[in-house]
Structure formats: structure tokens, C-alpha cells
Amino acid sequence: MIVRQALFEGSIHPGREDAFRAYVKTELLPMWRCFPGVREVRVLHERDRDAGLPEVAMVLSMAFDDADALQAALDSPVRHDSREVTKGLLAMFDGRVRHHVFDLAHGGTADA
């Protein structure tokens, strides 16, 4: 399994935090869940960080079976549409979005 993460490195405009989170939940999350081949979608909102580290307002994490499934999702119409809708989110955000792809080496719960 592979995981693609989008790190929203930067800050949400002051006073827009609730609107940012609501926009993700109502506008983007339903689209992300429709990506072909996606096995899991997680959205993480930063709560805290170690001293000296840059702010990461949000992380989008999407899991796929393999590189072919990821590529199919990236090439899909729903991904293209979601990029347009993301512009509304970026209007509430100062920073950059970086994408990383990982191999999932271990999974499960802490008590597994």
C-alpha cells in the first residue's frame, strides 16, 4: 500500500479556522472520498508542534493499493475537479502545499 500526503505548510487566515475546516468537510472531503481506487482518506488538523518547526495547518492523507492506483486517481476527472474546488480553501490560507508519497511499511492499531 502507498500513501500520498498533502502537507499544507503555513497558516490559516486569523478568524477563518472554523470556515477552513468546514470547507474541507463539506466541499473537499466528499470529493476526495470519490477518487478511484482510494482505500482511506484522513484529514489531520495541526494541534501542536515542537518548538522551531514550521506550522502545518493540515495534512491530507490518501492510501492506495499501488502506484498504478495512485496514478489513476491523479489522472481522474474528480481529482481535476477537486483542484478547482481547493482554490476556495487556499483563499483562506497563507503558505504552500507539498506532496509526498510513502510506502506503508506497517499498519494497524497500537494494541495489534
* First-last Cα distance: 18 Å
Q: Look at the structure and give the mean pLDDT.
A: 95
**Beta-strand content estimate:** 25-35%
- Contiguous low-pLDDT stretches (5 residues minimum) are none
Indicate the overall shape.
globular
Q: State the domain count.
A: 1
CATH architecture type: 2-Layer Sandwich
- The run of helices and strands is EHEEHHE
CATH fold title = Alpha-Beta Plaits
Text of the CATH class: Alpha Beta
Q: Structural class from helices and strands?
A: alpha+beta
Biggest beta sheet attributes: 4 strands, antiparallel
Spatial strand arrangement across the major sheet: 2-3-1-4
Give helix % range.
Answer: 25-40%
Number of strands: 4
